[in-house]
Specification:
Layout lengths: L42 H4 L10 H8 L10 H4 L4 H20 L12 H21 L3 H21 L13 H5 L14 H24 L5 H29 L4 H36 L18 H5 L6
Helix pairs in contact: 2-10, 4-5, 4-6, 4-10, 5-6, 8-9, 9-10
Length: 318
């Protein structure tokens, strides 16, 4: 073999997987000036990930959940893809919560058993993924992951008594005295004002998901399904908390109690559909990241719905 002895090695032979300068636009070999056969070369040079080669717009959109855009520098080739780790945080927070909301196997409590998961998977991993997307210049996933990272941290904090999110609504001195002035008085969970206030938070989370839904028309069908089901889920859960407020205002309001229970289950069903779509796209990204021979389609929309700059320039990207 030409590379059997170090003294005969071409200077380029020491390059690692991040530099495949002799490959074509879709990762195919277009030349081999190093004088060796890839099939028999150093295993390091044959270990290629999708981030190591020039990739098609469809593959870029699958890996990064965003149409390809020009950014200065080579950061996308220098750093790993942050998208999968953010999805892990999202899925390991949302999937158990969905089961809690639907009451499977006796689960419940609005996910209180997963408070730590909301902070360290949902919050931390999604914010780290958001920072990673920001570094490599992917604006849309940066905003999405940052938004949901903050959402999970906020939701987790609401469940922690120390933050006194619901305890602050206990204004009756007699009821407050039973908790001896400590934060997180659980009586606040049954105060109409707390439930109505929390419902408004869910309403506006649904609104921002609607914006993401429209933007996702430039990504892929699976991502679109994720935001569509999230809009429905936040709508159902907001309605549930508005109805809980009516119940705690008037304990004899049986109709509101029934509606609230059904809306919680419906919200859990929608978030479970979100989770299924999320697991699917996570699987697709992991396969594509390793250039696995089995590829899973995600329904790319980035080439079907042309960007404004592409239309101005006759279909060519700027």
């Amino acid at each position: 073999m030409a590379n059997a002895h170090p003294g005969n090695a071409h200077p380029d032979d020491n390059r690692l997987e991040k530099d495949f300068s002799h490959q074509g636009i879709n990762g195919n070999i277009s030349g081999n000036s190093s004088g060796y056969n890839d099939a028999n070369g150093d295993p390091l040079t044959r270990l290629r990930t999708a981030g190591s080669v020039n990739i098609s717009p469809e593959l870029f959109e699958k890996l990064y959940l965003s149409p390809e855009s020009r950014v200065k520098g080579e950061l996308r080739k220098t750093f790993g893809n942050p998208t999968p780790i953010a999805l892990v945080g999202f899925l390991l927070s949302l999937t158990p919560l969905s089961c809690d909301l639907m009451g499977w196997r006796g689960a419940g409590g609005n996910g209180a058993a997963s408070t730590g998961v909301f902070f360290f998977f949902g919050g931390m991993l999604m914010i780290l993924g958001s920072i990673g997307e920001w570094i490599i210049g992917n604006t849309f996933p940066f905003v999405v992951f940052g938004t949901f990272g903050a959402f999970w941290a906020t939701f987790g904090a609401t469940l922690v008594p120390w933050f006194n999110a619901y305890g602050a609504y206990v204004t009756d001195p007699t009821v407050a005295a039973t908790w001896m002035g400590n934060p997180g008085n659980p009586a606040g969970l049954e105060v109409p004002a707390f439930n109505a206030s929390f419902a408004f938070f869910l309403v506006f989370m649904g609104m921002i998901c609607l914006v993401f839904l429209i933007c996702s028309l430039r990504t892929n069908i699976v991502f679109f399904v994720i935001f569509f089901t999230l809009v429905c889920a936040f709508g159902c859960l907001a309605g549930a908390y508005f109805n809980f407020a009516l119940v705690y205002e008037n304990a004899t309001n049986a109709a509101a109690a029934t509606r609230a229970g059904r809306l919680v289950v419906a919200g859990g069903a929608f978030t479970f559909m979100t989770s299924l779509a999320g697991w699917y796209i996570f699987f697709a990204i992991m396969l594509a990241s390793l250039d696995f021979p089995l590829q899973v389609p995600v329904g790319d929309l980035s080439t079907m719905i042309k960007g404004a700059s592409e239309r101005v320039n006759g279909g060519s990207k700027v």
